[in-house]
Give the backbone structure.
Amino acid sequence: MRNKEINTGLWIFFFVFPGLAVVFVFILLPLFVSLFNSLFSWRQLLRGEFIGLDNFRTIFFTYPYKERFFNALGNNLKWFLTTMIVQNSLGMLFGYMLSRRIPGHEFFKRVFFIPVLFSIVVVSFLWGLYLRPNGLVNEFLKIIGLNNLVHAWLGEEKLATFSIIVVNIWRWVGFPSLVFLAAVDGVPADCIEAAYLDGVGEWKMFGRIIFPLILPSVTVIAVLTIIGSLNVFEQIFTMTGPEGGPNYATDTLGTMFYRTAFGGVDSGNPAIGIGSAIGVIIYVFTFLISIFSITATKSREVEL
């Protein structure tokens, strides 16, 4: 009996260890290294003396880091709110419609998911060309007579961030669509049939029966949205550059981290200590908001 338990434990360790090793090497170790580096002053690539939380104070209270940080955080908040509301609402709508087996649902399922398979850099580069003043989007608007809607989509501060967010939604909406499709298909048919027999309408059935049963999937999508919104980098870097132009209008914590750690915000020199502090802040925000989201939705989950 004792040998059997040991063998079982060894097999469990054998299968779990690779996953734990990946988490440790690519998540936990970089986090602790960033936290360690954030507590020291740096002379470019040389670690200096221990300074405690001074790098964090610099970010929150010193020009130009303070202004850049809260501007970038505001843009990340725009990403989060717009993506959470628009992308995930569309994903839920498309997923629910596909679960109703509308005509051509297999075709639409593939059409929705195809952009997810594209390289994010390629998508961002192509849409950067389309959104130029003489790009495909403006030319199309002119052809259909909507000249008043022609803009420099990536050149106007008020429009640039939301233009990139729309591109991001176009690319990713297929993922929550398929997740919600699978979740709705997983709802027991008995529950839906009983609701129909009781005369429950389509929308009331979704709100009172289906939605509570698919909340675990909603939680997963919400957490992934939080992580993605706080780690936006590739789209901004490719479409508007590492400064998040124009005039830092599209800057995010990810691009600010890159500029600070590898180029410096004010001097052009690497500021590894401050960059590491920004990385730690991103992790803390992601962790806390994810925990809040999981806690908020767990209390409403329904078990069959």
The two ends are 36 Å apart (CA to CA).
